[in-house]
Design a protein that fits this description.
Elements: E1 9-12, E2 21-22, E3 27-31, E4 34-39, E5 44-45, H1 47-55, E6 61-64, H2 68-84, H3 90-110, H4 116-136, H5 139-149, H6 155-172, H7 177-189, H8 199-202, H9 211-217, H10 220-228, H11 235-243, H12 264-279, H13 290-299, H14 306-318
Antiparallel strand pairs: 1-6, 2-5, 3-4
Helix pairs in contact: 2-3, 2-4, 3-4, 3-5, 3-6, 4-7, 6-7, 6-12, 7-11, 7-12, 10-11, 11-12, 12-13
The structure holds fe (ii) ion.
């Protein structure tokens, strides 16, 4: 092993590397305070090397930040093949997808909005969904994905989860690829208006907020649309951001639209957003089990129509999530 020179590194999972394929960037292991070269650029990441890492309990490897572009190109070129590689367990493939999606969406949410960097990262994420839509909406991968995507407090964790459920539910309605993708991107970005809001506010239960705090908080759909207004977001995605807190009984916000005034893909995001809220640990609440979340959604007659909830329950049942 070679001692690395001074550099900055970012963490990745070994699972993201396709076994027995050449990796176009150096891979390092962390050893105390330094990083040591494990697999040099251009060399094959063999199954034996992956096994060596697994046996040593190493779940994080590192890439030099200067190789970030090579890394993203590699992910783009290999993820679909990795997802379709049946020699890799479904659990590992689901973990690999989650790692890639989390890294890309974290970058997207941390960009200084709006600007060219945001647009570039948006396109990268869109490519990720486009290329993995088949994987995301098959029952078995979905069941495995929900084990990984349910973790994390950050807005982008919730965004990825909502996106996966929304892509699946849109496909229940037989929407075309473009509509599914637009709704997926709207679901991913639906809470982007929360980015930059006071941390203490975001850690408060919306139901327990003071009127002043609530007024600020409920601005987030409008802020979200404003930050995304600088590039051509499809109208379906814009609607999902703007209206994801509307309800068919007209008691939502920001416009109190009701029934079919709220477009169907937006109602899809409203439902998936609420389901993920209920099943995710938050600083102010504990996650409930999928069955209990669906019970609570069934009792809440005014969020979306019963038929939509029925389709949602059907897809979760098919994936054996409930
Ligand atoms: Fe929201």
């Amino acid at each position: 092993m070679t001692q690395a020179t001074k550099a900055e590194y970012f963490p990745i999972s070994p699972l993201i590397l396709r076994p027995d394929f050449k990796v176009p960037f150096d891979i390092f292991l962390r050893h105390d305070d330094s990083h040591v070269l494990f697999n040099a650029s251009g060399r094959t990441m063999t199954k034996a090397k992956r096994k060596e890492l697994a046996l040593a309990g190493i779940v994080t490897i590192y890439v030099d930040k200067r190789s970030r572009r090579l890394y993203h190109d590699y992910i783009r070129a290999n993820l679909l093949d990795l997802l379709e590689d049946e020699s890799i367990s479904l659990t590992e493939r689901a973990q690999a997808w989650t790692n890639a999606a989390t890294a890309l969406s974290k970058e997207l949410f941390e960009t200084n909005l709006p600007g060219p960097a945001f647009k570039k990262r948006y396109v990268r994420f869109q490519e990720l969904i486009r290329s993995s839509a088949g994987f995301l909406s098959s029952p078995e991968p979905l069941r495995n994905l929900t084990r990984f995507i349910g973790k994390g407090y950050e807005t982008y964790h919730h965004g990825i989860s909502t996106m996966i459920y929304a892509v699946n539910l849109m496909q229940e309605y037989k929407f075309g690829d473009d509509e599914v993708l637009a709704c997926g991107m709207g679901a991913l970005l639906h809470d982007i208006g929360l980015v930059g809001m006071d941390k203490a506010l975001l850690e408060t239960d919306p139901a327990a907020m003071s009127p002043a705090s609530r007024q600020i908080f409920t601005m987030h759909p409008l802020i979200g649309v404003r930050v995304c207004a600088h590039f051509d977001l499809p109208i379906i995605a814009t609607n999902c951001i703007l209206f994801h807190h509307e309800r068919i009984d007209g008691k939502g916000y920001p416009t109190q639209a009701s029934g079919e005034e709220i477009p169907l893909p937006t109602r899809v995001v409203a439902l998936c957003n609420r389901y993920d809220d209920l099943t995710r640990n938050r600083p102010y609440s504990r996650a409930v089990k999928p069955f209990d979340a669906l019970k609570s959604l069934t009792d809440d007659k005014g969020l979306v129509e019963p038929d939509m909830l029925k389709r949602f329950i059907k897809l979760l049942s098919r994936a054996e999530i409930v």
